[in-house]
Write a structure and sequence with these properties.
single chain, alpha+beta, 6-stranded antiparallel sheet, 5-stranded antiparallel sheet
Length: 706
Amino acid sequence: MPELRSGAQRGLRSNKVDNIQAADPVGSPAVPTPRGRAGRRGSAAVGRVNKAAAKGRGGLAPKHKGKRLKAIDLQTALPCKNLPEAVAGEAVISTAQEDLCLSKAADRAASLRMDGDSADKFAVADDDPTATPVPERVQVGNSPEYLTSRKLGKGGFGQVFVGKRVSGGSSRMGPDANEVALKFEHRSSKGCNYAPPYEWQVYQTLNGCYGIPSVHYKGRQGDYYILVMDMLGSSLWDLWNSVGQAMSPHMVACIAVEAISILEKLHSKGYVHGDVKPENFLLGQPGSPDEKKLFLIDLGLASKWKEAASGKHVQYEQRPDVFRGTIRYASVHAHLGRTGSRRDDLESLAYTLIFLIRGRLPWQGYQGDNKSFLVCKKKMATSPEILCCFCPAPFKHFLEMVTNMKFDEEPNYPKLISLFDGLIEGPASRPIRIDGALKVGQKRGRTLANLEDDEQPKKKVRLGSPATQWISVYNARRPMKQRYHYNVADSRLHQHIEKGNQDGLYISSVASSANFWALIMDAGTGFCSQVYELSQVFLHKEWITEQWEKNYYITAIAGAINGSSLVVMSKGTPYTQQSYKVSESFPYKWINKKWKEGFQVTSMATAGNRWGVVMSRNSGYSTQVVELDFLYPSEGIHHRWETGYRITSTAATPDQAAFILSIPKRKPMDETQETLRTSAFPSNHVKEKWVKNLYISSICYGRTVC
């Protein structure tokens, strides 16, 4: 039987620490299941408006020792006004309807995505019978006149045809070529939006870049924006199919070193490609001097990794509702909606190389609305040893290096290329030219041994074993009394809460592990009254609505594996309006919509794989961001800390961990914050933190990495 443990902190003036140990009987009172939509599976959004605004608490925390951060000039937001009850009811209905519309739109988008297709890119003119046919003759930007011939294929935003020169032309490549590739994009497509395609800007910057096909002319004709480019040969996808859907390690090693060289040149221009895959690597025309030369095409998803003016790396961001790339080959960071950087191109290249050797990746075959979620989860769970079990060792080493890179880290391209030296044979037997890799080798002028000697040990970014742990967050506070209880059965909750209330403590945070509860109670909440409910359903709508009518607001929630929940509601909060949502997946789109309406996340919890998120108006935060990961987003949290954010809510399922980070409107004197991950409840660590005036501000139990 689990053991109940409790602890209390009375502040620095008292040396006494409560440490009560007793066995809690296992058992839970019978709680009737409520009727209504809140008790059903699926998504539900609920909101309320208070009849009278609660008074906010003012004052700054006194100065203490701890980590100091540079002050940030924050503009105080205008106070939120109360809305009449009728408006609140209308807003709730609107929220539910909009959530349903968003869900249906996501379903339609997911149904369009295939395993190897780009999620953000859909062809327009080719499949739309109402679209204008492509011109039969093309002449743009002082180009020669071309006849539009056979179709070569279609990309995300457009389609490509052979263009045959009407007269003249004496070469196979260049502006005087007899045949060229014509890329058509309809002016109403996503890539154009009635303006020249974004891809044009990228090609203009990269024109002449090693491994990027040349653009000779561009312009608009009728309803289409047209690029006139060099004609190339087969893609690696076509080549892979022609050799029995499995390439030799020798050939793939040649592809690897040349692809790394091309990406290095592309990255040196300040761009990342964003959609590295076999279909986007093409060879030169058969029979031409470039027939064994590799080219990288389709820059529609390219983005800048550094700012043009300053040369600094772009800022880190995460938008979990944004995915760019191709599901099969996309990096884990792309799945999670993080800003693209150089590491993402290299991770996609690693999956491409392994696919060309193995003929299949472990995450192929997933279908359904949550396909991207399942693929990302599988990528995170598949170790390099398993993924590369049929590949020579250099491919495993390459995968380990690129998946361990930091967001703004500069790749060591020479070292990555040198990994494959032992697999590449003499020039006469090379199926792919490696001109770019040879130039890199000449420039580096150092052996692999020297490169390894110079390498300093660094903290792993993503590698590690998935684990289920307690995640606790500590904030610097002036000395106060705080108490914790864990392994608490349903039947013992009332006893601990009542005793805490008698001692002037209110619940500040709750969590659950193995269907037992953890309580954090302290004297620094500012609450004047508190109620709670244990329910057999996850967030009991009727009870919450009833307490809202009494001017209580949700201040802490927790869910158990069996689907039950503990909801704590308090008086004395600054909140003026509140809404919550229960969802089968992390509801980022709903959160983003509520942010625009002036709400901020104030509580989160999970029950099994279901998420519950509470958002409030007048929360005291000026802005918020989300960090979501299948492991523990240590790198993302540290990036946010550096820009003034602090963790204000946490929750985790067996698969994912989510953190809400906020910037307060009133900056505290001491911004010190620490996080801790432990297999057991951190009772001993909590006492050590108390000595340093660090108190638990949030706690949850779920997915991390060790």
